[in-house]
What does this fold into?
Amino acid sequence: MLVTSSTQQQNNTFLKAYGGTPYMGTVQVDIIRPNGTHVKTDFGDASAHFTSADNGKVKMIVFGAIGNKKGDAGFAVDGVATQKSWKCQSDSIQLSVKENGAIAGSGTVYPQQFTFSGKIADTRLELLTEIKTLKAAENGLPAGTKFTFRYVLRRDIATGTSNTKRRCKKIEWRPQYVGNFDGTGQTVRVPVCVD
It folds into this structure.
């Protein structure tokens, strides 16, 4: 007889709601100087999904490919799920999904400061990640420059496919390197639209 812990059962509840079929769509990045002047806007493909991780945790993987198809706008973090909520809390980053689907968080990993906001539902995920630089960058952008990443992602849980403007008929899971907030990274499986 197999006995599951209450933590695993709660993870299953959260993963039943938001796991499985990935959210897929687009990401838009805007770069804004401290004085408010707009430097540039770029667009790319993006995805997000939740999956089981080690020690009963649930991993949130956000993947974006703007200037590099191998990924240059994403992150992966482990958190603890409780019913329909999820929370990642490290020394530097706090990020949560509340029971009503609200996404919020913040943190600092020098030389960057992060703010997260958004909303998740069965068929839609919107996430705004704002990164503020705390020192001048090598490309000449001054300290205080903001990079805002706006992810607009959809899925059709009835058919198990993404529901973007150009409907994705077939998804393949491929290994990709995704960075962590502390400067390290890991190879994880991410969904790619191949139709």
